[in-house]
Amino acid sequence: MKKLCREKNGFTLAELLIVVAIIAVLASISIPIFSRVLRKARLAANQANARAAYAAAMVWYMENSNTTEQVNKDAGTFDASTGVFTPGVISTTNPNAPRFEDANINIDGWTVDTPSRPAYDKRRAGDVVYKKWDIYWSSSFDGTIDAYVASE
After folding, report:
1. Within the chain, where are the H helices?
2. Per-domain residue ranges for the chain?
3. How far apart are CA 116 and CA 49, in angstroms?
4. Which residues contact 49 (CB under 8 A, 6 or more apart)?
5. Higher-scoring residue by pLDDT: 116, 43
6. Do 43 and 126 form a contact (C-beta atoms < 8 A)?
7. Would the keyword rRNA processing be found if you checked this record's keyword annotation (predicted)?
């Protein structure tokens, strides 16, 4: 007796095209979501590092605010990888370094789109995780921080 149907050995072109189309749709949906979550994670890391820099700077301020010398009372650098605050040392001399000041000094108010550089540069707070933070004290050295300047 003859076989009425042949044995199937593989997938048809239509089946393969449908699978590829489904994978393409899933990828087009997941990539923007992944990018958004990654930017939020970078922002959270920057906020945590800036808070740690603030805490380390304030500890140094509390220990040294009553000295009469003007040494190291203008700025200092916090290294997020080691957790060490070094007074009087600036990690960057780049005038275009990310600078969070004035309205952006409130760390909790930062968003992934908070500009961290001059207006002509498109870098935002959620684009890069900054490892070093320069802390600039107010000129009166009253425990107020004027700016955070970050470097990669």
Report:
1. 13-64
2. 13-106+122-136
3. 15
4. 78, 80, 129, 130, 131, 133
5. 43
6. yes
7. no
HSE-up (13 A, CA, CB side) for residue 122: 0
Could you give the CA distance from residue 5 to residue 15 in angstroms, rounded to a whole number? Answer: 19
**How do beta strands 99-101 and 132-137 pair?**
unpaired
Tokens of 98: 């990310």
Distance CA 60, CA 55 (A): 9
Token pair 């900054």: residue? 130
What is the DSSP track for 40-57? HHHHHHHHHHHHHHHHHH
Q: Residue 9 is encoded by which pair of tokens?
A: 């050995």
Q: How does pLDDT run across 78-106, given as a tens digit for each residue?
A: 898 898 888 887 776 666 677 776 545 67
Residue type at 115 in one-letter notation? P
